[in-house]
C-alpha cells in the first residue's frame, strides 16, 4: 500500500482524472473531497462491505419452501384486504 | 449448454436464457452469468443460478410486490452498461433466509437490474438512499395475522 502524508487542503491525484482532497481534519476524523468522472463509482467502504456480506448471506439458503409459504400468505392476505 | 449445478443437478440451458453480469455480484465476481429458474415451491421468489459456479444460487424477489414505493434511480452510465436505450430495466432483489424463515430479509440497498432485451445485469449500490441491506419481508405485525384468518378492513 502506498502511504502519503497530507495536510488539510492538500490532495493526491490518481490516474488522469481523479483527485482526492483532504478538506479538514478534526481529531480522528478526516473530511475528504473526491473529484472524479461520473463513471467512477465512489462509495464508503462499509456500504460496499455490507452488500458483499449480504450477498454471501443470501447464498446460504436454509428453508426456501417455508419462506415461500410465508410470502404467499402475506400476498394472499393483502389481496383480501385490497 | 449442459451445466451441472449443485442444487438442481444437470441443467440444459438455452443460450438466450443466460443473463450476463459483466462485473459479477459483489463478493461473487466470478459469477458473471446466471439463469433464472421458476419453481412453484419458492414462488413468489425465483432462483437465480450461476452458470459459472455450480454451488452459487440465490433467491430473488421482485421488490415492488412487497414495497410498492421502492424506487431505483439509474445513473446514465448504468443505462449505458445495460444497453437499455429507452427501455426500462427489470429489478429484482436478493433474499436472505436465516434459520428462522420469519426473519427473512431482502437487500433493497443492492438491487439487481436487468435489461430484458440484451440480458445484461448489474448489481447497483444505492448508497445515498435510505434502503436497507436487510429489510424484513415479513413484518412483526403480520406474524399474528398469519396464524389467524385475516379480517376485512
Describe the structure.
The complex is a heterodimer of chains A (82) and B (153). Chain A is α+β, with helices and mostly antiparallel strands and 82 residues long. Helices cover 39% and strands 24% of the residues of chain A. Chain A contains two helices and three strands, in the order βββαα. Chain A has a three-stranded antiparallel β-sheet with strand order 1-2-3, with no helix packed on it. Chain A starts with 10 loop residues before the first strand and ends with a helix. Chain B contains two helices and eleven strands, in the order ββββββαβββββα. With 153 residues, chain B is mainly beta. Chain B has helices at residues 76-81, 140-147; strands at residues 2-5, 9-12, 19-20, 33-37, 46-50, 57-61, 90-96, 105-106, 112-115, 120-123, 135-136. Chain B is 9% helix and 29% strand. At the A-B interface, helix 1 and helix 2 of A face strand 6, strand 7 and helix 2 of B.
Low-confidence runs of chain B (pLDDT<50, min 5 residues)?
148-153
Order of helices and strands of chain B: EEEEEEHEEEEEH
Number of strands of chain A: 3
What string, H for helix and E for strand, traces the elements of chain A in order? EEEHH
**Average residue-wise pLDDT of chain B:** 90
Q: Helix/strand/pairing class of chain A, anyone?
A: alpha+beta
Number-wise, the strands of chain B total 11
Largest sheet of chain A: 3 strands, antiparallel
Terminal CA distance of chain B reads 51 Å
Based on CA atoms alone, the radius of gyration of chain B comes out at 17 Å
Biggest sheet character of chain B: 9 strands, antiparallel
What best-fitting shape of chain B do the alpha-carbon axes yield? globular
Rg of chain A (CA only): 23 Å
Read across the widest sheet of chain A, the strand sequence of neighbours is 1-2-3
Q: pLDDT under 50 segments of chain A (min length 5)?
A: none
Amino acid at each position: 500500500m502506498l502511504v502519503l502524508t497530507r495536510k488539510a487542503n492538500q490532495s493526491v491525484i490518481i490516474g488522469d482524472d481523479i483527485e482526492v482532497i483532504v478538506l479538514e481534519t478534526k481529531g480522528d476524523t478526516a473530511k475528504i473531497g473526491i473529484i472524479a468522472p461520473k463513471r467512477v463509482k465512489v462509495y464508503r467502504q462499509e456500504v460496499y462491505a455490507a452488500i458483499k456480506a449480504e450477498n454471501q448471506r443470501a447464498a446460504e439458503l436454509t428453508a426456501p419452501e417455508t419462506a415461500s409459504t410465508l410470502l404467499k400468505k402475506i400476498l394472499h392476505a393483502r389481496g383480501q384486504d385490497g | 449448454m449442459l451445466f451441472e449445478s449443485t442444487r438442481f443437478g444437470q441443467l440444459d440451458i438455452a443460450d438466450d436464457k443466460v443473463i450476463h453480469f459483466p462485473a459479477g455480484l459483489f463478493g461473487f465476481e466470478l459469477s458473471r452469468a446466471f439463469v433464472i429458474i421458476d419453481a412453484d415451491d419458492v414462488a413468489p421468489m425465483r432462483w437465480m443460478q450461476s452458470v459459472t459456479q455450480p454451488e452459487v444460487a440465490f433467491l430473488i424477489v421482485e421488490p415492488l410486490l412487497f414495497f410498492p414505493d421502492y424506487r431505483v434511480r439509474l445513473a446514465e452510465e448504468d443505462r449505458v452498461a445495460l444497453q437499455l436505450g429507452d427501455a426500462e430495466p427489470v429489478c429484482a432483489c436478493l433474499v436472505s433466509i436465516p434459520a428462522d424463515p420469519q426473519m427473512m430479509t431482502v437487500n433493497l440497498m443492492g438491487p439487481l437490474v436487468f435489461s430484458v432485451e440484451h440480458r445484461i445485469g448489474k448489481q447497483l449500490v444505492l448508497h445515498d438512499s435510505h434502503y436497507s441491506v436487510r429489510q424484513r419481508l415479513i413484518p412483526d405485525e403480520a406474524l399474528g395475522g398469519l396464524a389467524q384468518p385475516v379480517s376485512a378492513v
